[in-house]
């Protein structure tokens, strides 16, 4: 069987040489989880989801992992799910994208000055990667942040993204505790800003409002080099 990812047209990763292979099996549980999805949904991406955005970005947004009906389906981070609606609308409001987001990887949307990464590249069951899976995937995040030499500000969406970003940038978690709008200067001088994840659950429960999310990006823009 030809893997579904081969038939999906998506925007090439700006960090292609730091991406896992499409058949990555470093996390056996995640590799096993995607196999029945490739049979059930052969027109989905169903593979590690690559970074999306501007290789010359000053801002990096780090998410948790692909959503089943979002990035795992479309092959582009946050594309096609509820969380992406708020994220891409906010990026557009701050001039960090061009084109119109239409929840599809072929909608022509481009990011300007921003790039989206994930702490975990593959879809985890129930959106919950294990600590070992997070550790196993971290070298990809480390390599991509290292390549993004112009990135000065990193926004972490949720606690897992926060923890992975801190470790990937050489920071210490006891000194960098997660909290919405918390700000941390990493050893390399980059600034990490925390946000609650823009998930459907957080938005529907009011834990994260559009105004709260906007405040994170407003702060990031003030730190633009």
> Which residues form runs of ≥5 with pLDDT under 50?
1-6
In terms of quaternary structure, the protein is single chain
Got a strand count?
8
Give the terminus-to-terminus CA distance. 48 Å
Mean pLDDT score: 94
Strand percentage: 5-15%
Radius of gyration: 16 Å
- Helix fraction by DSSP (H/I, runs of at least 4): 25-40%
Describe this structure in words.
- The chain has 225 residues and is an alpha/beta fold.
- The chain is built from 7 helices and 8 strands.
- The chain has helices at 28-40, 71-74, 82-93, 131-147, 159-168, 200-205, 210-222, and strands at residues 52-53, 59-63, 97-98, 110-111, 114-118, 153-157, 183-185, 191-195.
- It has a 6-stranded mixed sheet with strand order 1-5-2-6-8-7, with helices on both faces. Strands 3-4 form a two-stranded antiparallel ribbon.
- α4 packs across α5 (159-168).
- It starts with 27 loop residues before the first helix and ends with a helix.
Short description:
This protein is α/β, with parallel strands linked by helices and 225 residues long. It contains 7 helices and 8 strands; from the N terminus they run αββααβββαβαββαα. The longest helix is centred in the middle third of the chain and has 17 residues, at 131-147.
Spell out the key features of this protein.
225 residues, alpha/beta, two-stranded antiparallel ribbon, 7 helices, 13% strand, globular, disordered N terminus
């Amino acid at each position: 069987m030809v893997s579904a990812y081969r038939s999906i047209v998506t925007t090439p990763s700006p960090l292609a040489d730091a991406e896992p292979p499409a058949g990555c099996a470093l996390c056996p549980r995640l590799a096993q989880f995607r196999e029945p999805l490739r049979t059930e949904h052969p027109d989905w991406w169903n593979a590690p989801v690559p970074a999306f955005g501007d290789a010359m970005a000053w801002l990096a947004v780090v998410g948790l992992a692909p959503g089943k009906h979002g990035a795992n389906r479309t092959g582009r981070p946050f594309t096609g799910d509820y969380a992406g609606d708020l994220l891409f609308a906010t990026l557009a409001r701050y001039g960090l994208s061009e084109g119109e987001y239409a929840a599809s990887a072929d909608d022509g949307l481009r990011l300007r000055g921003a790039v989206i990464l994930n702490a975990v590249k593959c879809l985890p069951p129930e959106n919950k990667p294990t600590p070992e899976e997070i550790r196993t995937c971290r070298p990809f995040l480390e390599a991509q942040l290292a390549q993004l030499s112009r990135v000065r500000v990193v926004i972490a969406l949720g606690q897992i993204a926060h923890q992975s970003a801190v470790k990937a940038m050489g920071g210490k978690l006891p000194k960098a505790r997660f909290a919405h709008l918390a700000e941390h200067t990493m050893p390399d001088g980059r600034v990490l800003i925390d946000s609650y994840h823009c998930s459907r659950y957080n938005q529907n429960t009011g834990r994260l409002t559009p105004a709260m999310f906007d405040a994170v990006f407003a702060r990031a823009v003030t730190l633009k080099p």
